[in-house]
């Protein structure tokens, strides 16, 4: 598995070396513990929930994040269609605060993205019936789930001209507005929570 560090501290792109394709179909392992541990020095978090979403072309989901603590980490790949999977550093005090990076994910290369605790997650569906699969370290608790505007001009994310957004994402605040309100996670708290997640696994 090839591992690439992204522009956001702690975020990774992971691409399996072997995709087995024959007349029966295809088999691939988008997550491999040994390679993840070799890249990070840690085991993956204990999975508390898995998510599966299907989106039509032009749908943008995010920028979503979890209040920290409790915080959560994610391991995401695209099982059908294709998407731009984007990690945004919203952790106040992070050496990469305000930066983002993008990985094109699809079932051709099966790149996966590791999102550390406290970062923002947004993806853009590039095709109809794009399926995204997630492993998450924490269960969904509505009051802990927050959103930022993917159309924040200061971030300049690569969005379609007319993104299809949920009502919540349409009215979400910008990064600067959320920082002013004190809603963003603290980088050092996120690092501490992340370490605890890996120690418990």
TrEMBL record:
<feature type="site" description="Participates in a stacking interaction with the thymidine ring of dTDP-4-oxo-6-deoxyglucose">
    <location>
        <position position="140"/>
    </location>
</feature>
<feature type="active site" description="Proton donor">
    <location>
        <position position="134"/>
    </location>
</feature>
<dbReference type="InterPro" id="IPR014710">
    <property type="entry name" value="RmlC-like_jellyroll"/>
</dbReference>
<dbReference type="InterPro" id="IPR000888">
    <property type="entry name" value="RmlC-like"/>
</dbReference>
<dbReference type="GO" id="GO:0019305">
    <property type="term" value="P:dTDP-rhamnose biosynthetic process"/>
</dbReference>
<dbReference type="GO" id="GO:0000271">
    <property type="term" value="P:polysaccharide biosynthetic process"/>
</dbReference>
<protein>
    <submittedName>
        <fullName>dTDP-4-dehydrorhamnose 3,5-epimerase</fullName>
    </submittedName>
</protein>
<dbReference type="Pfam" id="PF00908">
    <property type="entry name" value="dTDP_sugar_isom"/>
</dbReference>
<dbReference type="GO" id="GO:0005829">
    <property type="term" value="C:cytosol"/>
</dbReference>
<feature type="active site" description="Proton acceptor">
    <location>
        <position position="64"/>
    </location>
</feature>
<dbReference type="InterPro" id="IPR011051">
    <property type="entry name" value="RmlC_Cupin_sf"/>
</dbReference>
<comment type="similarity">
    <text>Belongs to the dTDP-4-dehydrorhamnose 3,5-epimerase family.</text>
</comment>
<dbReference type="GO" id="GO:0008830">
    <property type="term" value="F:dTDP-4-dehydrorhamnose 3,5-epimerase activity"/>
</dbReference>
